[in-house]
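Structure, all two chains, one model.
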Amino acid sequence: MIKFEHVGKRYLKKVALKDINLELKPGKIVGLIGENGSGKSTTLKLIAGLIQPTSGVVTVNGRRVTRRISEHVAYLSELDEFYGFFTVGEMIAFFASQYPDFNREKAEEIRRFMKLAPDSKIKNLSKGNRGRLKIVLTLAREVPVVLMDEPLSGLDPMVRDAIVKGLISFIDLERQIVLITTHEIKEVETILDEVLLIKGGEIIGHKNVEELRDRENLGLVEWMTKVYAGDCPPTV
Amino acid sequence: MNTWWQLSKKEFRLGLPAFLFTLIGLVAVLTLAFYLGTRAGSGDHEGLQAVKAASLLLITAHVLYLLCYMVYSLQSERKKLHLWLASPLPGSVLLSAKLANGLLAMTVTLSISSAVGLITTALLHDLPKGYTWGTLIANGGFIILNIYLMSIFFALCFVFFWMIYRMLLRRLGGITSGVITGLFAWLLSYLTNLFEKTELYHAIVRWGKISSPSILNQTGISSGHIYLGVYIWYTGIAVVLFAASCWILDKKVEV
């Protein structure tokens, strides 16, 4: 379980997150949406232990988060930087050697699904293929928490659709919780169980996506637009 | 063990450009020394003397080798921190893999420099006064050991201050973090200097007297003896710096 208790994060003078209280349980795919600079990536980095809260506490399965929470958390960064001297196959092998939970067979399966050649040098990969490689490396880990920061960024629409469909088959929802930040809301909407809406470092909405669709007859983009405009009350 | 080995292989490839650059630089310096020596004198003899002098200079320069290697390696990691820091391995393992590869690279270039120094000494029949090959190699070995120790010490100092800088960077910004890290480094070095003038320091380190190589005495680097206590003192500081660096890396450095 992921827990935020009065978590704040500040970069120099900029407040990135304000007094966040949050509990997320396994077995769900949760979307984290909001405008640029709203605090989505900061939230994921805090869970991954790659940054520390300025105030409050973040825990994963009761353990206070430091960078070594990576034993239990797989993190897909929005950044495209890799060790360029590796080939795709070598990078997969390297990850397999570093993470005891890395499932090599699953990685190969996802790699084939992503149509990535194992002998391609990473430094020669296109942005789209780097994005695919990130997905391979993240989803091949059998960890309770999977964090994906803009996994669809830089991918063309057809590939995005294939990846979104693939995501469901490569995630073990019995044991995993997946948090996805994205601007491609419509593309992931169909696979999300819950959605968190962030604005100015605050969570201003937390909804069950199916309920939102069935009871309020709203798509995510419409709901987000309404809440941002103040036509819909915050739901936290 | 396989985890460390694979990490180490990655570090080897990451540090390869720095190693090759040093290797090429070393060959270039030795070649240039031979060329300039030959041109300045009347033949190969002067050329070999210049190569010998250059090799001694290069051997000495190795006290900074590991530091420079770590600068390159950590700076290369700077844009990949989301990968490096997302490793489940403790900071001590991450840093030791880098240091081990740096030491391996250093051993190659130091061996080449030392071999060139010995070969030119043999070709020139130029043993220092009162030395046999046995005493030269024993004394040289002692000096090489000290070059390794100093190189490791300087590298660990750099790693520690790099960690301090990275810890402050996201909180205070680049310029302020740089200034604070610089001031902190100056303050620590000033306080260490002050402490090393006290009776307490002398009481701690002045034991285990051993004779230093006569080459060092003749050149004024040493006054005839070295204390084992000094080695223990600096080893202690190095251990503290390494432990502090690992702690900061695990708990405080941010992407």
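The interface with chain B takes residues 11-12, 45, 48, 50-52, 66-68, 70-71, 75, 77, 79, 81-83, 85-86, 93-94, 97-100 of chain A (CB under 8 Å).
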